[in-house]
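Pilot study result, target chain (637 residues):
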Amino acid sequence: MDEDIDKTGYSKVKTEALCKAFKYCCTVSEITIGPEASESITDVECVMKPTSPYSKAFQLKSCKNSPEFPSDFELSLNDRLEERFYAKKLLAELNNACNVDGQKMKFNILKKHEETLERAKEDAEHVRANIESRTLLRKLEIDEKKSSIQNRLIVRQQQLNSSSLSNNAAKKIQELKKQEEEQLREKALQRKKLYDMVYKNEMEFKNAYSEIVAVITNFKDFKQRIASEVELASKINVQFISLIERSKNDSITPAEVEVSSSLLKDILTISSKIKQEKEKYDDELKKKKEKEDEINLKKNLEHVKSPSPSSPPNISNDEKSEKSKYDYMEKYHSVTNYLMEIEQKLKPFITDETLKKYRSDCQKAINLPVNAISPCSAAHLTDKLKKLTTLLNGQHVTVADKRVSATSHPLGIIYCKNLLAEKIVKLGEQVVSSKPDAAFAIAAVTVAIWIEFPDFGKLLLAHFYRRCPYLIPVYWKLEENQTEEEYYKKLGFTYNDGVREELNMFLKRQGGIVRLFASLMITEKKKSLQSQPHPFNLGEGWKFLVAFVKLEPKPEISATILYDVLDVIGSSMLKLYGIQFNKLLHVICKFYLPRIIEATPEGKQGGPLCRLKTFLESIVKGKVLQPPKGLLPSNFW
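Predicted structure:
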């Protein structure tokens, strides 16, 4: 403890402070610091008063300017020794006092520490005593509970031992009751299952018998064909009703369920036979009706098959007398085979890379005048016709300041004819489909070229039939080993990256081709070609219509073809054939239009079918057929 006090320097500071205080306390009696300090401290006499027991040991010097002491005053050696002695003595006493104080402080601290420890021990003893007392009490409580539980267990064991016999008997009785209840439950479930099976058979039986009754009621003529089945069904129905009545009054048995299933099987067999007979009966009625319709159609067509024109001008004698039979497929095969022969001949010519520039010049010589065809004037059409006929005759034509001749290659002329025929048909689906008026100027140039180059006409028809097979007329069927894409392409559809075009776009293209095809029939010949027969006159239109209405109609495309043909050539046909054409229109309205409506699914009876119905209804109401818009006058060129 002393070392801790000494480290703080407390002893040294205290000694120095006391020495200084003792030294100056006798000489300074006034306040020297602060606001109450004396005005001058220089006049204070530095004289030690003999109040202290140590005053004899010090002889203070007077101030430097004091008159009482000389400036050279000095203490004697003895005085100094004495002063030192008393100083040491004083220091010793002071140290003594400091040590005493330190010992007292240390004693006090130790005493306090001991008191604290004593109190802590007392507290610990008190806590330990409390814990021991609580532990003892808890142990006593646990012992008491154990004793109580043991007593109850002993009593319970005694009770169990005394009632073991009665409990075993009660358990057996309870088990027997459970077994009886389980058996009753199983019987109830089995009975319910049997009733459910009978109920299910009853519902199916009622449905089957109701169908039989409905057939008998709605189709009385059909009843005679199934008289034996109806009689047997009635007997089975009586048996089934009797079975159901018994099951309601008495308990049902598995045997009765089997009987109900057997009766149901019998009635279903009869119902199936009746349905098959009904389907056969319906097919017979349908075929009979179709046959009657076909006979009526043929009878009506007999009256209009050989029309005599009421307006003979512009019609040759050959055109007046039509053949009794028209083999349109023979014509199709003829022109198609011719086209295939030409394409086979042109294959080396088309694949020859050295002739690429020559083929390009020929294409320009055809495309430029064909694309420029328009009914702006007779001179304009004559100019385009002259350029094309000059090229096909093997003469030189100028294309982009370059002279081109189709005879520069042995296959040049036939290549140009085939290219021109294909180009004209494409104008039908590309131009006429959007602008129907353009068909007649194209048809005028086409007819003039056809008259001069009959082989061009064969190629033209072949391309028409390839692009639109309904002009043959025919509806192709799917052949064996034919892919879907091949089949639809044969029907006239186009594909782009393997995706078939939409039906609306297809019908629009086909309509353009048909309108151009029909425009050829009513196009007047050029004045300079009047002596030549028309290569594709209205007689072709008559034969086409008669052959077309004999075909089984197809949804949308049949209405499209028929409407576009009648819209283009209807006025001219009426003018030429008069009452005979009216008879043909009557056949179309009465027999063919209903067949188109029947073949068209619900929801698709707009568009083409609606236009055809409106067109025919207007004719029936007496509307006069007008020439198609854009038709060139007979004296145009």
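One observation from the pilot: The domain at 317-620 is CATH 1.25.40.510 (Serine Threonine Protein Phosphatase 5, Tetratricopeptide repeat). A full batch analysis is planned for the follow-on phase.
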